[in-house]
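Regression check, uridine-diphosphate-N-acetylglucosamine case 419:
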Amino acid sequence: MEKLIIQGGNPLVGEIRVSGAKNAALPILAAGLLADEPLTIRNLPHLQDITTTMELLGSMGLTLTVGKRLQVEIDSGTISNFFAPYELVKTMRASILVLGPLLARFGQAEVSLPGGCAIGSRPVDIHLHGLAAMGAEIEVSGGYIKAKTTGLKGADIILDKVTVTGTENLLMAATLADGVTTIKNAAREPEVVDLICCLQKMGANISGAGTDTLRIEGVKSLMGVTYDILPDRIETGTYLVAAAMTGGHVRLKDTRPELLEGVMSKLTEAGATVTRGLDWVELQMKGQTLKAVDINTGPYPGFPTDMQAQFTALNAVAEGVGVVVESVFENRFMHVQELMRMGASIRLEGNTAIVTGVKNLTGAPLMATDLRASASLVLAGLVATGETVINRIYHIDRGYETIEEKLMNLGAKIKRVPR
Ligand code: UD1
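Current build output:
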């Protein structure tokens, strides 16, 4: 297994490009199942989760043609089965996103039930209730969700909890259902909006994008189109935090700063100077003192849970005390123990981490536990004195495109080595 070795202490300086958003690309790849014609997706990030989704679609018989410029064409005309095996679903919970499209277009699906994961139990009950309300017959047995329908019907659905992939699954199912579906308490994340924009381009009739109430009027079929994935706001935020922590000055291009207002305002509160244009954002920290900030995660437009670990790392080396409350997931503080092994001072109380900044972290051998936790360990390694070795970096490769190359371009001392 590969690992990352980081020599801390260099401020990050320079410019890099932000990749396409993983969490928009995953549902849009699944939307390839809905179209009668090939769907071409551009600005796909080169990530393990994308490869896993393409492998899943390929295993169902779909034809995937990878082109130049981060492009893939998905043709569902060759589908031969409707099965998502445990072996793939266990490595990526977002595989559940094929359930809604399979049911809507082909009337059947057998998808492994995602298990627990490092950041909590993460059930899919809301996805299943919504599909049942649309008339699907669902049985859970032998670890699999077995679902069938003679035709989904529009329904009024109120989500018990705001769920991103739940909203996306039901939304995709509703595009081909008979009649009108409303989804209340829907997720408003930019990635949900990006999926809606793609579905609209394919001919779906959806209103309310970006609000908590979606109205979908089913259509008979959807077309194949070409669609560009939006930039990754979490990748953008992660590099901004890295620049702030290292006292650097970075410019990120090909991004959409308006999608991370909460993150940028916390960075300003932490002492950084943040400037932005339509498709770029710049953070300057030189000479300023990094100050601890309080964070409370929530569904969009709340503070993203996917940025919580990075801000925990920021607080660990900032002046003062930062209180970090995780309100979305029940157990998303796996990074805390590892940060403490580097000398961080953090007290955990239930879903709250009280972080008292220290002058110095020291490099240590560390274990990556989940995607964003791993990112926070990389950030900590960039400011620690001495060498940090991060093991199990396949977690990082699920969500950060060529992270060591991008960081090297910004002047970090980081390398990937085989075990
Ligand atoms: C998505 C993102 C992930 C992000 C998360 C929250 C993708 C591929 N992943 O994950 O990066 O951290 O949103 O912004 O887009 N819940 C239930 N029952 C359900 C579904 C969810 O109780 O049927 C709960 C979850 O346990 C969690 C909360 O709802 O506490 C939000 O989870 P959800 O938005 O569904 O996360 P994902 O869509 O899996």
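Comparison notes: The first strand starts at residue 3 and ends at 7. Residues 212 and 219 are 22 Å apart (CA to CA). No diff flagged against the previous build.
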